[in-house]
Automatic annotation (TrEMBL):
UniProt entry tagged with the keyword Flavoprotein: no
Residue stretches making up the Peptidase M1 alanyl aminopeptidase C-terminal domain: 554-879
Gene3D superfamilies referenced in this protein's UniProt entry, alphabetically: 2.60.40.1840, 3.30.2010.30, Neutral Protease Domain 2, Peptidase M1, alanyl aminopeptidase, C-terminal domain, tricorn interacting facor f3 domain
Reaction(s) the record says it catalyses: Release of an N-terminal amino acid, Xaa-|-Yaa- from a peptide, amide or arylamide. Xaa is preferably Ala, but may be most amino acids including Pro (slow action). When a terminal hydrophobic residue is followed by a prolyl residue, the two may be released as an intact Xaa-Pro dipeptide
All residue ranges annotated as the Aminopeptidase N-like N-terminal domain in the record: 51-187
Domain Peptidase M1 alanyl aminopeptidase Ig-like fold: 445-548
Keywords noted in UniProt: Aminopeptidase, Hydrolase, Metal-binding, Metalloprotease, Protease, Zinc
Record-level GO BP terms: proteolysis
NCBIfam families xref list: pepN_proteo
Functional summary from the UniProt entry: Aminopeptidase N is involved in the degradation of intracellular peptides generated by protein breakdown during normal growth as well as in response to nutrient starvation.
Transit peptide as UniProt keyword: no
Pfam families cross-referenced by the UniProt entry: DUF3458, DUF3458_C, Peptidase_M1, Peptidase_M1_N
Protein name: Aminopeptidase N
Length: 880
């Protein structure tokens, strides 16, 4: 495969003003007729260069320019392009091709999911549908006619508004849709199937009524209300917070079972992985409900940040994704607990994105090069990209940020633009120079920020020294200093916040403020500080950096209790846990008896005993850092020692705090029994506390705990409690209770694909010995198939990403298993194959024996035959 470089970007030679598509859908093939109204791009030079259309796996049936049929000598065709020589600056191309959605297992382009036809065109799937200029800076007005057998495909959908429909004699029917907004081909969508929908409406801020519809296969019609509620909340929020109004008369979502991503923001016709839109209390957990709310919002928000203003080229992907993730995160924070949302996002970022930024696929938020763009739908583009937007918001303030976003949407409506254009709008609206800040877009790697303090008891000054650095990443040996916004405060000995006045300032400026660290080394001196304070740094995780400050454990306990910033209270607890767990890892590695610092128990005891604390915060504070996070923090990750240390700490917590955990568990469960389920913040908080308490209690191994576990499993009225109880049993030594629960669950839910995904995941993630054998056996379960991405993620993905002790078995069998699956999937679905590879790319984190085994499997994949560009890029870069 070829590498594509940002520096080679050139405007398109030709433009497509109108795109008229006709699809004739049949069971064994589909015909696509495309009429493209084209002209020379006046911005791209003079003369008439050859026209090079993208097209892959298309059987060309006919081709004409301005109604004149072309013969074989009039064009050239290879496996990805069709080239012809225009003779006029304005012309119309007509093409007919045959494609095979019925055998498309890559789930890119037009394909079948179960009995329905659907599309996924981002990033470069449209070229598998028809010959086209498949690039985001070619924007066109689309009219789409779909024809199919009426009995099997009564519903025919595409982007925009329905303008005509009719019946043919042979049992077929057709519908025509017109999208009045110009859009790139990646936002095209088509759906045909036997679908039911629920319908609602939304009155926009200017008083227009928009019809809202969510389509599903009939058996899922009862799982749509939460998605619909989420959609209406999103529409309202985007009006209130960003002033963005919806622009078509109809907005549709379709749920499909086989989908590579979470969802896709096609104009007016979002297509969703059913896991991201279906939700019902009996089948979906609280986490799933929250995910639905977030993804519905995310895709809806793309209507402005992505569709009305789109990307010039795929290097700018974070322009729409980072911005839209930031928007959906703020939406979720407004709908639920802001602090808890931030905690979850930061824990995810630090575990997963930081690992990516430290690995062979590390790339800037705006990459310079790629082989396969599908590989760049990454945590860096999405999550780090969102952090970059959050930092801009922090540096400019909410008001100037909003003015910047208004200017951006206004200035670029209908255009395909760059990250630089976005920054320019922010600068123009705020007057803030973001020149140096832009390094966040061009430099990869996670910056380190080392902080030191100095107190002068005579002068009453307190100084903080910040030293920033960033480790080398592929292609980037040396980094320039970043602009790092550090939100901070100072606490006195009673835990009160001090007024913050920097040397040279006339008056103090509040008790929490943002220091902009812009140099490799920089000092800030606060004056009027009567006693040595304790700093609270990087409040709300104000920058995606690894900050270190030499806190003692006692100081961390103090911050846990007193910091006014909820995020930093949690963070102090995490740092305390990390210190304590790292000490246990050391003991384990030295073969010493493990001994847990009692301060951790004391800290958790006071958290548990404090009934005034938000239950969600208690649950978060009780959650020890994940094994993956501890691995990420290690120089060389010792998976067995990490697991042993963490399990030891959990057992100690259970032993020392059993009575408190029991009391809180019982109180929560009692409330669950007496209140009908709602996916609201208070109930979600209660259930998370209840479930984490149960997971600790189970470590006692006593009969009374097995009983409550079974009671919760049997009698819960919702999946959050039922699944948690089953997971506790699965991870316990109670073999017969475990077997009974798994069998009952599978029997009851066998026809619900999304519930069975959870059943697979719980087992795949269990760290008990024999994990690989269990997963291999589950691969033969009738509900499992490699052809469904959700199943692959639920079983193989969960095993390789969440089950460290089993996946990293010393004999390499876990690695071999994963490589076998990647090789099989490479032929079926390259995007999923490449995604699945991620754990093997992290080989540098492990001891030399494991490194050799992991590399060996990467090499075996490389030698396994013809590789997709997706898999080839990741494997070859990982082996460098
Ligand atoms: N569907 C993906 C997302 O919304 C890609 N645009 O992020
Ligand atoms: Zn997105």
């Amino acid at each position: 495969p070829k590498t594509v470089y940002l520096k080679d970007y050139r405007a398109p030679d030709y433009l497509i003003d109108e795109t008229h598509l006709t699809f004739e859908l049949f069971e064994d093939h589909t015909l696509v007729h495309a009429q493209l109204v084209m002209r020379r791009n006046p911005q791209a030079g003079s003369g008439l260069p050859p026209l090079v259309l993208d097209g892959q796996q298309l059987e060309l049936l006919s081709l004409a320019v301005d109604d004149v049929p072309l013969g074989e000598g009039d064009y050239q065709q290879d496996d990805s392009h069709l080239t012809l020589q225009p003779t006029r600056s304005e012309f119309v191309i007509d093409s007919s091709v045959r494609i095979h959605p019925e055998s498309n297992t890559a789930l890119e382009g037009l394909y079948k999911s179960g009995g329905m036809f659907c599309t996924q065109c981002e990033a470069e799937g449209f070229r598998k549908i028809t010959f086209y200029l498949d690039r985001p800076d070619v924007m066109s007005k689309f009219t789409t006619t779909v024809s199919a057998a009426q009995r099997d495909y009564p519903v025919l959908l595409s982007n925009g508004n329905p303008i005509a429909s009719g019946h043919e004699e042979d049992g077929r029917h057709w519908a025509t849709w017109q999208d009045p907004f110009r859009k790139p081909a990646y936002l095209f969508a088509l759906v045909a199937g036997d679908l039911w929908c629920i319908e609602d409406s939304f009155r926009t801020m200017s008083g227009r009524d928009v019809a809202l519809r969510i389509y599903v296969e009939p058996e899922n019609i009862g799982k749509l209300q939460h998605g619909m509620d989420s959609l209406k909340k999103s529409m309202k929020w985007d009006e209130e917070v960003y002033g963005r109004e919806y622009d078509l008369d109809i907005f549709m979502i379709v749920a499909v079972n086989d989908f590579n991503m979470g969802a896709m923001e096609n104009k007016g016709l979002n297509i969703f992985n059913s896991s991201c839109v279906l939700a019902h209390p009996e089948t979906a957990t609280d986490a799933a409900h929250q995910r639905v709310e977030a993804v519905v919002a995310h895709e809806y928000f793309h209507n402005w940040s992505g569709n009305r203003v789109t990307c010039r080229d795929w290097f700018q992907l974070s322009l729409k994704e980072g911005f839209t993730v930031f928007r959906d995160a703020e939406f979720s924070a407004d709908m639920n607990s802001r602090t808890v949302k931030r905690i979850e996002d930061v824990a995810f970022l630090r575990t997963q994105q930081f690992a990516e930024d430290a690995g062979p696929m590390a790339h800037p938020v705006r990459p310079d090069a790629y082989m396969e763009i599908s590989n760049f739908y990454t945590l860096t583009i999405y999550e780090k990209g969102a952090e970059v937007l959050r930092m801009i918001h922090t540096l400019l303030g909410a008001e100037a940020f909003r003015q910047g976003s208004d200017l951006y949407f206004d200035r670029h409506d209908g255009q395909a633009v760059t990250c630089d254009d976005f920054i320019q709008a922010m600068e123009d609206a705020s007057g803030v120079d973001l020149g140096q800040f832009k390094r966040w877009y061009t430099q990869s790697g996670t910056p380190r920020l080392v902080v030191e303090e100095a107190y002068d008891p005579v002068a009453h000054t307190y100084s903080l020294t910040f030293r920033q650095s960033c480790p080398p990443t592929p292609g980037q040996e040396h980094k320039q200093p970043f602009v790092i916004p550090v939100a901070m405060g100072l606490l006195d000995a009673h835990g009160h916040e001090l007024p913050l006045r920097l040397a040279g300032e006339a008056v103090a400026d509040g008790t929490s403020r943002v220091l902009a660290v812009t140099e490799a080394e920089q000092h800030f001196t606060f004056v009027d500080v009567a006693h040595k304070p304790l700093p609270s740094l990087l409040r709300g995780f104000s920058a995606p950096v690894k900050l270190s400050f030499p806190y003692s454990r006692d100081q961390l306990m103090f911050l846990m209790q007193h910091d006014s910033d909820g995020f930093n209270r949690w963070e102090a607890g995490q740092q305390l846990s990390v210190q304590v767990l790292q000490e246990l890892v050391d003991q384990q590695q030295r073969d010493e008896a493990l001994s847990l610092d009692p301060r951790l128990i004391a800290a958790l005891r006071s958290v548990l005993a404090d009934e005034s604390l938000d239950a969600a915060m208690v649950a978060e504070m009780l959650s020890l850092p994940a094994e993956a996070y501890l691995a990420e923090l290690s120089e060389v990750a010792d998976v067995d020692a990490i697991h042993a240390a963490r399990e030891f700490a959990r057992a100690q917590i259970c032993a020392e705090l059993f009575d408190l955990l029991w009391a809180r568990y019982q109180a929560c469960r009692e409330q669950s029994r007496s209140t009908p389920y709602a996916a609201d913040a208070a109930q979600i908080a209660r259930r998370s506390l209840q479930n984490i308490a149960l997971s600790y209690l189970a470590l006692a191994g006593s009969d009374e705990v097995v009983d409550v576990c079974e009671e919760q499993f049997e009698h819960a009225d919702n999946m959050t409690e039922r699944l948690a109880a089953m997971a506790v049993l699965v991870n316990s030594p109670f073999e017969s209770e475990k077997a009974t629960a798994l069998a009952k669950f599978a029997d009851y839910f066998k026809d619900d694909a999304l519930v069975m995904d959870q059943w697979f995941s719980v087992q795949a993630g269990s760290p008990l010995p024999g994990g690989l054998e269990r997963v291999e056996a589950l691969m033969h379960h009738p509900a499992f198939t490699l052809k469904n991405p959700n199943k692959v993620r639920a079983l193989i993905g969960a095993f390789a990403n969440q089950n460290h002790v089993n996946f990293h078995r010393l004999d390499g069998a876990g690695y071999r298993f994963l490589a076998d699956q990647v090789i099989a999937l490479n032929a079926l679905n390259p995007q999923i194959a490449s995604r699945l590879l991620t754990p093997l790319t992290r080989w540098r984190k492990f001891d030399s024996a494991r490194q050799a085994l992991m590399r060996g499997e990467l090499e075996r994949i490389l030698a396994s035959g013809e590789l997709s560009s997706d898999v080839f890029e990741v494997v070859s870069k990982s082996l460098v």
